[in-house]
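We treat protein structure as text, and this decision shapes the records that our systems exchange. We quote a single record here, exactly as it is kept in our systems:
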Amino acid sequence: MQEGNGTLMVIGGAEDKTNDCVILKKFVELSRGGRIIVMTSATDEPQRVGKNYFELFNRLGAASVDVLDIPDREVANRDETIEKLKSATGVFFTGGDQLKITGTLGGTKVDRTLHHLYRQGVTIAGTSAGASVMSSTMIVGGSNDETPKKDSLSMAPGMALLNEVVIDQHFAQRGRIGRLLAVIAQNPHYLGVGIDEDTAILVNGSSRFEVIGSQTVTIVDGEKITFSNASETGPRHPLALADVVLHVLPAGFGFDVRERCLLLPPQ
């Protein structure tokens, strides 16, 4: 499922920033309270968003917080940018547009450095667009709250920190079950992972992940689909699917992607 020894924190967006801050506190803890780098490549407002997370992580006890704004691929290939990133113990991708992340960072020195850091044990987190970009294939657009249809979404290569899954975020809040089903109809070997707001999965050194946060994670497993009309149906026509497996997991539950099985909370 993953290629590194670090931890991935994949957040469904709108994580609590004012009350218990369970998810963000966990990120600081997993970063060993050390040097956090906030990556603002996804947002159109890097100064405002960067300032908010800078203040937030400082308040939550991080030893050091820096905002790294990378506006273009030239900056993403500069040695001074890499030097700033190398000392991170935690990297946090903000929300925005996932295509801005891959378009700016994909194939650059920053991209390669992030994978190196992850292999070395650094924690990498992403919220909203920063969550979608974690997988090798990501959703970049599609209709919310709609019947699943073959052409109702668009996909693109992600950063490939996670394999074998496709992430969707703001999941229940924006009614995105239809588009995740459309993904699985066309790519049944992937596991669809829909993450609600203020909810995250923690992936740590194996094929397993754990759910944290206040809402749920929806798992759509198409491995045992017995019928699909995805290859025959026309544009805008509804999809037919049979024997899709669905799991809804609150905090404490987990899932083994390789074995495709539920993990119960410790008793």
Observations:
- The chain has one domain: 7-253.
- The two ends are 26 Å apart (CA to CA).
